[in-house]
Structures are given as C-alpha cells and as structure tokens.
Predict the 3D structure of the following.
Amino acid sequence: MSEWLKILVPGLVGLVVGLLLEPVKAQITLRIQLHNLRRALYGELSSFYSIADSAEQCVEGSRLKQKYLEDLKEFRFSTYQYARANPALFYALSESWSLDCLVREWESAAGKQIDSFPALALDLVGVGLVCEDLSEREFRKIEEAVFRCYLARKTKLQNDLSPCLCPRCMSELEVANRKGAKNSGEPNQNPS
C-alpha cells in the first residue's frame, strides 16, 4: 500500500465519523442544557413555594410573617427571567408554558394588595403540579421537605379543582363536551 493511501484512509474515516457524530454531540449538549435549566427553574420554584408555605404557617401579625410576606412580594423569578433570555432553550422545555402562566399571574397579583398572598402563591404552584403541567418528580428532586408540604395540600387542591380549571384540562373538557353534544344529537343506534 502506498504512503499517500495510509494517510488518506484514516483522514477520510475521521471526517466521516466527525460528520456523523456532530448531530449526536448537538443533541447531547441540548439535553444537558435542558436538564440544567429545568433543575434551576424547579429550584427557584421550590424556593418560592417554601417562602409562601413559611408565610402561611406563621402567626398572623408576627414580624416573621411580615418578613416572609415581604420576601414573597419581592420574589423576582430571576432564573426564569434568565431562561427567557434564551427562548430557543426555554421553549424546548415542556413546562415553559406553565411557568409563563405562573409568573404572569404572580406578577399581576404582586402589584395589588392581597390578603392571602401566601395562599395564592401556594395555589399557583400547586395547580401546576396537580394538573401535571409541572412535574412532581422534578419538584420532589429539589427539596424533599418542600415536596412534603405540597403533598399535605395536594388532596385539598385536587378536591378544589374538581374539575380542573387549567387550560389543558379545560380544552380536554371542551372537546369531550363537543363530542357529547354530537352524540346526543344522533338517534340511538342500539334500541333496548
């Protein structure tokens, strides 16, 4: 075998392998970035829930409750804001829409005087988890104690949300109602 062939074959093999592995490398990088972003967002969500739960547990009028309420009103969702700066990555998350809704609801309520600020915060996160728009599994991974607080409220939330009023469930309910309306207009195919 000639000398130039010994150089050309490994070069071509390296080129082909490099070209084939580049998309795999991009996919792996994207998955790692999504995993890290998801963990950071759920960490922030856990902190938000923890502050709200602590404020809810405090005695009305105490200084500690006032401190938690101030912390809650000043909560800025900085990780969420950072994630939104990279929309291609943020909207690749399945939870992005739910997080957008949660933060928008919170920011619209934060400007108003609300007596039950902690309950609103707990309900916003709880509804997302109960309706499975947010992942209980990811939420649990961050802080077990905060997850246990959520579990204590979950049954009450499920009962309060029966039927669930999140947009996903409402659209499913609307589709089911439309199907029911179609079926009720048709004559009974199976007379008894």
The mean pLDDT is 80.
